[in-house]
Amino acid sequence: MLQDAESGQARDTSRAARLVKILNILNAHTPRGGVTVRELSALCGVGERQIYRDLKTVEHEMDTPLAKNGQPSRYSLKASYLPPLRPDQALIIFLSLLQQKGSALSGHINTIKDVLVTHLFKNRYRPDDFPVERLQQRLYFVEETLANPEQVGRVFARITDALQDQVRLKIWYFVGYRGVLSERVIEPYALVCKRQHWFLVGYCTNSQAVRTFRVDQIENAVTRSDEHFEYPADFLVQDYLADTWGVMKDGEARRVVLRFAPSVAYRLRRILYHPSQCIEEESADGSVVVSFRVSGLAELQTWIVQWLDRVEVLEPESLRHQVRDMGAAIAGLYRE
Asked: In whole angstroms, what is the distance from residue 290 CA to residue 280 CA?
């Protein structure tokens, strides 16, 4: 049984390698009028009947439209297959796709990866050593993943359709802090990604204000294709969220000053956690005082707590009290 399984896996790998090679040949020969089945058969080392089957797979399963012209028939791609990427450039795209595994975009990742392989491993087709599989085995991404990426992906696709068509969207949104499902009609303005989590920014007709909704908390979404709306000429999502710590806007931007302990000060020199980040003071003991100008202090508060006793809030006083109270509440959970 094990031998049969290994034999089946080898056949699948050989087929995948051959399909990639066929796509590469088609891509290379399309500007020159295409390639015949006989030529593909000779280049791939399989019979012409197999090539016909492979061409059907390329067109119907890999969604790559083909053109057939002349006598004997020459096959070519109906449109440019991919821009001329160097293998190292395609590799960067490939790695970024792998990073989306388990996200709202994961539904399309496998198909796109198959298409990109042509540029990643050009002229390296060995059925007994298919590099894509090996590369994926040597990469490991530590990320939060969605419990149901397929469902979230379907909702995400409806949101992008509504964004492109500028039509209203009815959503069923789970409000976490209240534990209830809320029906709303949204005019979608933008999608925002934060650490692989997607958020919808749009005008909520219920609250009559611009709101932000976490996409994986949208249980369902239905586009209202007959309800078009005017995208506001003065709205730019980059400006709307420019001062926010994350994606939530909760009033005017405020100056925040934090002191970081010597053991973590180096991170503030190496990483910009917000565009407004500024090192105000470097002390002899190695600690640093850093300022930010941000809104969304609730999100900032949870970020501060992650540093435990290695950060102290200096300004504003209200945030200092909030973090202190949060620390006291956490400590209360562990009292003997």
From this structure: 5
Measured distance between the N- and C-terminal CA atoms of the chain, rounded to whole angstroms = 57
CB atoms within 10 A of CB 46: 17
Q: Hey, is 7 helix, strand or coil?
A: helix
50: tokens are 């197999």
In whole angstroms, what is the distance from residue 245 CA to residue 268 CA?
A: 16
For domain 254-333, say whether CATH 3.40.30 is its number.
no
Residue count of the chain, please give it: 336
* Cα radius of gyration (the chain): 27
Strands 180-194 and 197-204, sheet pairing: antiparallel
Predicted confidence (pLDDT) at residue 133 exceeds the cutoff of 80: no
Helix 37-44, helix 2-29: angle, nearest 10: 130
Read off the tokens for 112: 């796109």
pTM greater than 0.85 (yes/no)? no
Class (C level, CATH) for 2-77:
mainly alpha
pLDDT tens, position by position, 48-106:
999 999 999 988 888 788 999 888 899 998 865 555 556 666 667 777 777 777 777 77
The structure tokens 């997607």 sit at 198
DSSP classification of residue 124: -
Taking the C-alpha atoms of residue 183 and residue 289, their distance in angstroms, rounded to an integer, is: 45
Residue spans of the domains in the chain: they are: 2-77, 87-137, 149-237, 254-333
192-196-199 Cα angle (round to 5): 30
DSSP string, 213-244: EEGGGEEEEEEEEEEE-PPPTT--HHHHTTTB
